[in-house]
Amino acid sequence: MTARKRWILAQSIRPAASRAVRALSPGQWLAVAVLGLSGVAAFGLAPGTTLDTAPTREINRALPVPEVRSIDDRLAGYWREERIQRGDTVGSVLSRLGVNDPDAMAFMRTDPAARPLYQLRPGRPLTVETGDDGLLLRLRFVTGSGDLLSVVRDGQHFAAATTVAPAAVHWKMAAGEIRSSLFGAADAIGLPDAVTIQLADVFAGDIDFYKDIQRGDRFSVVYEMRYVEGEAVGAGRIVAAEFSNRGKEFRAYLWRDAGGAESYYAQDGSALRKAFLRSPMEFSRVTSGFSNSRFHPILRTWRAHKGIDYAAPVGTPVRATGNGKLLFAGVEGGYGKVIHLQNSGAYSTLYAHLSRFAPQLKPGARIAQGEVIGYVGQTGWATGPHLHYEFRVANEQRDPLTIALPGGEPLPAADRAAFMAGIAPATLQLALARTLPFPLAAASD
Ligand SMILES: [Zn+2]
Prior knowledge:
This protein is about 20% helix and about 30% strand. It is α+β, with helices and mostly antiparallel strands. It folds into 3 domains: about 1-55 and about 170-275 and about 420-435, Nuclear Transport Factor 2, Chain: A (Roll), CATH 3.10.450.350; about 80-165, Nuclear Transport Factor 2, Chain: A, CATH 3.10.450.350; about 285-400, Glucose Permease (Domain IIA) (Distorted Sandwich).
């Protein structure tokens, strides 16, 4: 997944400003509405549907296209396709496809180049061309990593090759409402985990996804999906998203500057990335639920001991909320195992009651925002496993909710007009996503 993500990030993208906004025809609206019943609409998938507002970018790489060996025309047979089912073996799929070719089977079992064929994933198609007698002429298969495996017969011999297939990137949109957790809501609408995690990351400067999420919060997201041979092979970046948290609306748009750097900005061009994350808890499936701790809401605990407590299982990763330098990592009285970071200017942050430290915490170490620095525990004066987090200004504990925190760099004025024009298609799709019916309460949510 990481490799794929990096690959996607490496693609060149067309400036958003060049995307045209055009009205949808009634037929296109209908397609959106029908697809919307599942809570996720996929553009470019419905037959005969092309939405001008959902740009498709052909990604071209300087890689050889799988060489198709010359095949005698008299041998040319029929292409057939089968979806892989749960419990399938390569043999069982090929048998359903009418392949009756022991030589081909022996080749695919033993040739290392054919090995990706054995990464069978239910739902993926396997396509073969066979002769009248069931001999395998050609086989095509999109592998788990989104590459294209082809097996070609050349007389009595076979050759297999895996190539990076040209991918098309389409926009998809989804909308959900939170009932128990962000992951629960994402699962209910089929949002890929990689997008859910990005969503929490994009808004990490504004929303504490550990403490602030509540039932009834809503989100809409427009994101990229990569397709190879018509098969979805992986999610890309979030293009635009909005999150309604406790009645407050946040919106984010991806923007790529002339130098190629990508960041998220709010509708007015202010930076989404802040000097501090709202939560020191790393967002994951474990931390995405409501905190059902005995600790009271932030302000009540705040008066008691000038810190914010996060109840969490021992071992839950704790991350640095801002860039900084390690001041101290060790054992200190009631704090137990504690980390103190010197952040920018007069700001410092402290993380206490940890069970252990991350290995890179050497004296004076530079720590990046979001980096995992330790793990939740109950060392020191703690009656249960939790993280005690302090935000200090000039070494005095302050409530990060009530003081003005430094923000990130806003969009340069020179980019503003292009940004406003460029975000229009995504804004339109966010508006469409908002009209999608949310799926009824699912057991998993
Ligand atoms: Zn505390």
